[in-house]
Amino acid sequence: MKQEWKTVVATQNLSKKYGNQYSVKQINLEVPEHAIYGFLGPNGAGKSTTLKMLLGLTEPTEGSIRIFGKPVEAKNRIELLRQTGSLIESPSYYGHLTGEDNLKLVAALKNVNENQIPEILSIVNLEEQKTKKAVHYSLGMKQRLGLAMALLGFPRLLILDEPTNGLDPAGIQEMRELIASLPGIYEMSVIVSSHMLSEIDLLANYVGIIDRGNLIFQNSLEQLHLQSRGNLLLRVDQPERAKIVLQQRKISAVISEGKLLLSPMRDVDAGRIARLLMEEGMEIYRMESHEKTLEEIFLSLTHGSAEGSGHLE
Question: Is residue 313 part of a domain?
């Protein structure tokens, strides 16, 4: 059964231009409610600029933004931002204050009850370090403190820009598990940007891919994986003859390293090809489908334009 989504963030032709160069060009985001929306792209693709426009930190050159179904305008910007938490680039904090005191300061600025702080410290696993000065925090602890600040007030929308940047593998896993729990427990909608395909694959259930300022894909993670269907590989005893037999029936095939390569097809069609070749007296040693990796999917979507445009792991 297809899942029906409500849209919590929508943009129309959102653009940002610096001089004559577009950093973001006419993108139409649709972020589903209570989903984790993975905003994926190489460094320099326009992810941070887009998120800053959503938060009012950068003025769009063109286009419009709707959050919670309401247009983002001067008269209601503060109201909408009060329901939004964010961690953009590196977290900001006062190093001479403890983690707990940093949260108290942010709570006062947000007009949020300090009674939330113990629960939020527990969520980000900083209870035991709450009386430690932030300057002495590890990088992972600083990232979790930044996330704790964003969670104050338990916002309906959480925007996180590269939240695992610089973390070690254990820290990345911890941050991923923490973010993954938020929609289910606190009914939050989360936008999380990353240049790491593997992270988005493990974390998100909805994906937008941006490349050189253009939104080139937007759909569920399931739909992205459907694009992973790759060539059908056949190893037969007579590859040259098999190729001729298939071409006579208008089935395109090429030979590579002794194997037949066929275009992606349904299982039932692959079965028919196997029966055809066997009826022609050929033996099939192996038949397999080559599934594209997410890296290969990205490169096919961008036609290789990731090269030279930034780092993508």
Answer: no
**Cβ(298)–Cβ(312) under 8 Å?**
yes
User: Which DSSP category does 155 fall into?
Assistant: -
Domain hosting 278: range is: 232-289
Averaged pLDDT in 10-residue chunks for the chain of 313 residues: 71 95 96 95 90 94 95 88 88 93 94 93 93 93 93 95 86 90 93 88 93 93 76 90 92 86 85 92 88 70 48 38
In the numeric block, which tokens belong to residue 153? 């007030």
Q: Judge if pTM exceeds 0.85.
A: no
CA distances from 129 to 98, 103, 106, 126, 163 (A): 8, 13, 18, 5, 20
CA atoms lying within 13 Å on the CB side of residue 131: 1
Residues 6 or more apart whose CB falls under 8 angstroms from that of 261 comprise 231, 232, 233, 253, 254, 255
Amino acid at 259: K
Is the same domain home to 196 and 239? no
